[in-house]
Write a structure and sequence with these properties.
The protein is 48% helix and 8% strand. The protein is mainly alpha-helical and 480 residues long. 45% of the residues are buried.
Length: 480
Amino acid sequence: MRDLFPKLNRPEYPTSPEIFLTSIAWGLFDVEGVSADVRRKFRRQQRHSDQNASGEQRGGKVEYSWERLVEPSSGFASNLRDAGFALSRGSVGEQLLISSDFVKALLSGVTGTTSIKSDSIAVSPLSPSLALLQTVKGMKGTNANFALMFEQIWQLGLVDSEDSIGESWLRASERMLDRNMHLKALDRALDSTKGFGPRVRKNSRSSQSEPWAIGQAYPELMIQSPMGWFTRSWKNLTSEQWIDALPPRVWTDWASAVLRTAFGMTYLWEAAWYHTVAENILSRESQQFNFSSMRGALLLPWAPSDLPISLRGVKGYIDKKVRTGSEISSLLSTTVKEMGLADVSLEVGLEALRRNANFLKSLAAAKNLPTTRHTSTVEAVTYSLNIRKEFGEGADHFGLLSLKGGRFRVPDPGTEWLAAVVSLSSRAPRESINMGNLLFELNSMGLNPPTSELVSELERAGLARGSADADIGLNIDTAF
């Protein structure tokens, strides 16, 4: 019966999209003299009621990397010059000191996203040293191990190698550094600055757990799932062709887009999985476990834009689906343990559960009745999919759910999100796909947008070629 439970840790909400790559970086490196437990953020946005001028925040003192790095005493400016950022005067090449204004301008160029209510702005993790300018503890207040969660999602996607998310990201980062001298110099300068380097590679590599037996036995189930979409897109993104084709900032933005979309949709998939399990147990029609409905399952309704916003909003749908799915999971876990079914086969265990009248009554209630529990899982899904801030500094262009009418979350991603998804449906840059390919990936993700509106968005983005009447044969270009 252990096979009934996909191997996924409980999620926590991400305070910003950049927190995922930061978690992956801290999973790979230590920084000399710095603990991952330090509360470190990149840049202060504004003071809020929970923080005073000295940086005190509920839960402890917060460090801001920006404020330390712009101070001449940090040595960062000197390290920039030593790494190759040199300003010269005249033909004799006399070097000028790098000012704090130059440092501020440079750091502004690597600013990431924020939300309207946030007190800080994240750094865009374009390189290992940049990713280490903030800690998960500082960004979130807890040491949530997002890196491990992504390794689990990666493995559920039926990866056919012993590679990992962390290792593939590091290889991609190192290749980008080798191809971009300015980014390499910035990374080296940070790594040479006390308190921000040197970084030291951890000895322990991410260990892979035993694969999920159901996923191994029914690979088509995983291929057409958010996890399958994730592994395909991530493998494409971290291939040499795509690394070389994309500017570092675009590559990093796409990486964050893939990670956050996979994170939210995977835990929606998990909720749908437990609903399917409950339906199988409660059904009297068949004794066989039937999960065919999970193959390419619709996980998030995407209504046509001509409907009222109130009918297009998905916040309530996500809330109920995730809470009841989590409630089913908790009930199953407790009952399997109490009945001593953990080590029996799936068929034997399911039959035993079907004979437990009290359990069946509780299961029907868990499946249908609202609950206020499992808020952290709901927040994990919604925060990863939401567009945080639509305009201005720290704007978020890679979310899936847009805020409409002040309170409705509607599937309405920006052009940038669509460009990333379309492009990473192709194994190589400038290698076009067709509408059938794109719909397969979107359906695997758990999405089914209105086709006519999807075509219109593709045409608006300049990605669609040919007649819209071509249906699934419509040619679609990659963005690079």
